[in-house]
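Homework-ish question, so no full write-ups if that breaks the rules, but can someone show me the predicted structure for this set?
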Amino acid sequence: MAGPETDAQFHFTGIKKYFNSYILTGRMNCVLATYGGIALMILYFKLRSKKTPAMKATLTWTSSVKFRCLEKLMSTHHAILNLYNKL
Amino acid sequence: MNENLFASFAAPSMMGLPIVVLIVMFPSVLFPTPSRLINNRLISIQQWLIQLTSKQMLAIHNQKGQTWALMLMSLILFISSTNLLGLLPHSFTPTTQLSMNLGMAIPLWAGTVITGFRYKTKASLAHFLPQGTPLPLIPMLVVIETISLLIQPMALAVRLTANITAGHLLIHLIGGATLALINISATTAFITFIILILLTILEFAVALIQAYVFTLLVSLYLHDNT
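A: Not a homework solution, just the prediction itself:
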């Protein structure tokens, strides 16, 4: 069974001293590094922008105040035209 | 026939009121409390059985693990008595309900895991990576070990539910088949009846074994974390 008494037989140097699959500390660090890597990947994909530059430009225009005013004006114009045609 | 097959697993009610709580509490009535130094035969047998089970189950545990003795003994007594009472005809068995078994499995498993992380954080984390794993396999094995840990309470609950439910369904089906065959062929009905008797004996064993397996697994999870 792994434990502090069996860890003494292993002598690692460099990065292997902290990241290995033999001693308790090494195994713990590998596990934490794996979880950290998965968390970073999830964070990256969540924060990554899904829109292209052209879409971004269009969305910026469509969400602007000018565009909304123009849209309202056009819809009012269409409503007046329809009313006129009915009469 | 199809509706009747699953009617015994529906939550029971009497005059519109749910009585499932009474049914869950009922087995405790069957275990008398010892009130004297030397008790009567029934209580003495009960004490002897509990002592035998607890000695065998707690032998592997250290002092911290043995603080769970009352919990584990209550668990095995509750599940075994509930399973055995469920073998009575037309009775409701709470352990056929997945909700009930998840309600037992998840808190117990979580208790063992939290105990392990609290008192032996390094060893609990290191447990996710088997010793001697080759370097390229480390991330994959960590993920696999994490999934296997998270699946443990589900497996505990589903194992108990599936075993007891399947047994009851089989008894229901074979009993129905025996009745149906009486008018058709007495010999076949007799053979089916023998199968039913053997199945009932098996179900008695399964009732006790499943209670033991549930408690033993909780005990093993505790042993890994203490």
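Now go work out the reasoning yourself. Hint: Chain A has a mean pLDDT of 80.
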